[in-house]
Specification:
- The protein is an alpha+beta fold.
- The protein has two domains: about 250 residues, FAD/NAD(P)-binding domain (3-Layer(bba) Sandwich); about 150 residues, no CATH class.
- The chain has 13 helices and 22 strands.
- The chain has a seven-stranded antiparallel beta sheet with strand order 17-16-13-14-15-12-18. A five-stranded parallel beta sheet has the order 6-2-1-10-22, covered by helices on one side.
- α10 packs across α12.
- The radius of gyration is 25 Å and the shape is elongated.
- The two termini are about 15 Å apart.
Amino acid sequence: MRIAIIGAGAAGCFAAANLPYHEGDEVAVFEKTGKVLQKVKVSGGGRCNVTHACFDIPELITRYPRGKQLLRRSLYCFTPADTIKWFTDRGVKLKTEADGRIFPVTDSSQTIIDCIWQQMMQNKVQVLYHRSVERIERKENKFIIHFVDAPAYETDKIIIAVGGFPKAEQYKWLLQLGHTIQSPIPSLFTFNIPGETITQLMGVSVQNATIKIQGTKSSVSGPLLITHWGLSGPAVLRTSAWAARELAEKKYDFHILINWLGSLTEPDLQETFQHLRQNEGKRLVSGKNPFDLPSRLWSYFFERSGINNLVRWGDLRSAEQNKLITVLLCDSYHVKGKTTFKEEFVTAGGINISEIDPQSMESRIIPGLYFAGEILDADGITGGFNFQHAWSSGYIAASGIRKQELI
């Protein structure tokens, strides 16, 4: 049997690593660039966030804005626990950080790359670089893959794991096979807020802020980072994932409301400020920060509220206090544009998951054609969830092919 895997990213290489060598078989991975596992290499700041310590599958599925219909099956077939076992069985030691993200103890993505690569080589997988697919031809029970600048390749089975394409026209060769796509849009991006003075605080972060997109029900909490162009951090990235289609429709021109104190409410602040006025009345407002916010940010809030930093808590007028409460709990910013967040960029959209059998990743339209990874219309928030989808779908596609071989 000949098995072709198109794409040498996480899903494609993991599929190859889970296709044990059978005498006479030929497994070939075709990659359009000159490198393999590039997203794995740069992910997590070069550490590779392998998966997430969320072992309750119904809870895990809630970390994916799109693709639940497929993920309800695939994540049960190959779970985060299975991912951990797969790597630890091959000598990779993993660690779980406080937020649930799982990394190799080496803090090097090369550890993960080497593990997958060694298993691929043990499986006698061939890797061919600079192979850009032009079209796939169906010929009786076989496929012929036509490349742009390389000879065609005839194969029995194909796993397509090319990642997400940012433009709809890049899916043309897949549409020609009879599949349909959900239009691709960016996910996991940061917010640009040009002209806002808060960007002067670049590098300042808050551990738990809540972001709400004005005019929608979208609300996400988590760490927030101020950058020289706008806002970033997990809270922003997750907001961009959950509201990806709404923000695309708005052409990335919208308003957000930030609760810098996470879940605290106006009555909470009224009570806190009343206590400060009564018990800390002689202290400067700028000198007493009851919320453990960064000092530069705390000072900025007084400036934004029009309050003199030299005012004492006992002299703070009600109108000033109310303005400060509004800034702390419902701070409004105009977002105009987005910026790709390093390696975390993900494309939402792709092959319609209703056309895929989640128990084998085989096309319901074309027998012998399989899909894995980001090419499918399924994507997660940050935290190792997109890699888990890649491992699960890649493993299931490989298993699906071997099961078909036995029938």
